[in-house]
Amino acid sequence: MPAPVISAHQLVKSYKVKGKPDFVAVDGLSFEVAPGESFGLLGPNGAGKSTTMKMIGAVSTRSGGDLQILGLDPDRYGPEIRSRLGVVPQQDNLDGELNARENLYIYGRYFGLSSKVCHERADELLAFAQLEDKAKNKVDQLSGGMKRRLTIARGLINDPRILLLDEPTTGLDPQARHVLWDRLFRLKERGTTLVLTTHYMDEAEQLCDRLIVVDKGRIMAEGTPASLIREHSSREVLEVRFGSDRNAQVAGQLAGIGDRVEVLPDRILIYADNGEAALERVTSLGLEPITSLVRRSSLEDVFLRLTGRSLIE
Ligand SMILES: Nc1ncnc2c1ncn2[C@@H]1O[C@H](COP(=O)(O)OP(=O)(O)O)[C@@H](O)[C@H]1O
Ligand SMILES: [Mg+2]
Prior knowledge:
Blueprint (H helix, E strand, L loop, with lengths): L5 E10 L7 E11 L4 E5 L6 H8 L7 E6 L4 H11 E4 L11 H11 L4 H14 L15 H12 L6 E5 L7 H16 L3 E6 L2 H7 L2 E6 L2 E6 L1 H8 L3 E6 L5 H5 L8 E4 L4 E5 L2 H10 L6 E6 L2 H9 L6
Helix pairs in contact: 3-4, 5-6, 8-11
Enzyme class: hydrolase
Pfam family, one: ABC_tran
GO biological process, one term: response to antibiotic
């Protein structure tokens, strides 16, 4: 096993809150990231994902535990670590007054790269981000997806070994998300280590080799998307709707069908290895759902199982 590029042990971050006990946003996270791996933190809003990313990025100090980035302690080697990471923060912080190419160039200069290297990399990265024809456009004129791609390009200007991406596609439309996923796949293929946070289960399934499911600052589960689903859910899920007034009332009659029944406000989920067979059993009880759907289990189901809550409220 090659040495991990990130290792966190019992990592804690607490925030001071006036007149109250400290608020613990990250509550003892332990994980390692191997070189070239694509590692995810999946969890709802407020889980502590951004707080963790800021500690990894050496822009926020930890309150407890151990943390090593590329073998270095961020408490002592902040500047060295920052110079070797690429960061895509949750909120884009591009300079809206500058054009796309200038944003890349200036950022490279901050890293102390020569003007020649900055010009070369700016062009390469504009091509990588598929923004060549927007090079001269002011950032304020770019779409959300383009800004996100430009922020990723900017994060790559120092040729980092690790790219940190905090909610890379939140707020983007499906098409813009797919373009971005394609770019991130390419980075992964080139061997860049990706650490990303998301509250989209499909994004985690698409991009992550391995992930931790985080809730309230704690790790609920860890594994590959497939192993998490295997461990915490059935193969298939039958979703049935009887109308908002009847779901809860009907649910009692469904006990014993499949491994588990979950009643949500708008639908009932029946966890079963064979969803079609489960549906036959439902209809054999004389129950006629308004709609029914059989699908494969997803990370959303894993999260629901582990926390009793839906990932996206
Ligand atoms: N600077 C801060 N001061 C106090 N509380 C904070 C601060 N930053 C984040 N928090 C709180 O810590 C928790 C985790 O926040 P965050 O890491 O941003 O979660 P996530 O990125 O998973 O949505 C939230 O409850 C948030 O309100
Ligand atoms: Mg966040």
